[in-house]
Amino acid sequence: MKNSAKTVVENMFSAFSSGDVEKFVATVSDDTVWIYHGTHIIPAGSFEKKEGVRTFFTNIMERTEIINFEPLQYIVEGNMVVVRGREHQRVKRSGRELKQNWVQIYTVENDLITKMEEFAASEEVKGKNTK
After folding, report:
1. Which domains does the chain carry?
2. How far is the CA of 40 from the CAs of 35, 87, 112, in angstroms?
3. Which tens digits make up the pLDDT trace of 59-91?
């Protein structure tokens, strides 16, 4: 039985939250394309194929500490899943904290993510842990 498109995306988020790069990469197709449109704080980027998605994942995990990652709403239409969410992270090198609201659009085919496109708004958190 095929998984629903939403279940595939939820499994990917679970792998992301646990820091499991292999389970994360296993949720995408060989020819997947991930596009991040970027903000004034986090630059835009495009990642292709499983190796590109692996780079996307490891860049995040090596450079930041995820304080909170929260998908808030799922909208599913056929094989497309739109997720609205937010996250809070600390940049390991500088200690800066960032909060981000985002919308991610996933296309799922044959139980694998073939495309992800993210639109985000980032802001630096002012507080005792940032300079």
Report:
1. 5-125 (3.10.450.50)
2. 16, 16, 31
3. 889 989 999 999 999 999 999 999 999 999 999
